[in-house]
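seq as requested:
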Amino acid sequence: MKELDQSIVDAFGVVSLLLAFAAAYSAALWPIVSDLLTKQKPIVNADRQQDARRCRAYAWTMGTLAALFFLTGIMLTPLTIDVIQDFTFGGEFHTVRAGLVLVQVTLLSGTIVVIVLCRRLVKRKNDWS
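C-alpha cells:
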C-alpha cells in the first residue's frame, strides 16, 4: 500500500513540471483562441486570409497542447490502473491516490476541450478561406 503511494509521489515529481507547463500554455493561448473564435468575419479578403492563417497556426498549436495533455495522461495510466485495482470501500482515505485520479480526469477533460477548440479553429479557418 505504501509502495503504491510512493510511486505516485515519485511520478508527480516528474509530471508536475509537465502539468505546470501545460497550464501556463493553456492560459497563454486561451485569450488568442477565444478572440479568433468570437471575431466577426472580416469584410476585406486580405484580412480574412490573414485570420484564416492565424486560425490554422493556432489549431496546430492547440493540437500540440492536446498531445501534451494526452501523453502526460498516458504516462500516468499504469499508476491509475494500480490505484483502481487496489481500491476498497471503507478504511482510510488516500489523498495521494485521489489526487492521481483527479489529475487523470483533468488531463482527459483538458484533452477533449482542446480538441474541440482545435476543431472549431479549423472550421473557422475553412469558413474564412
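The two ends are 57 Å apart (CA to CA).
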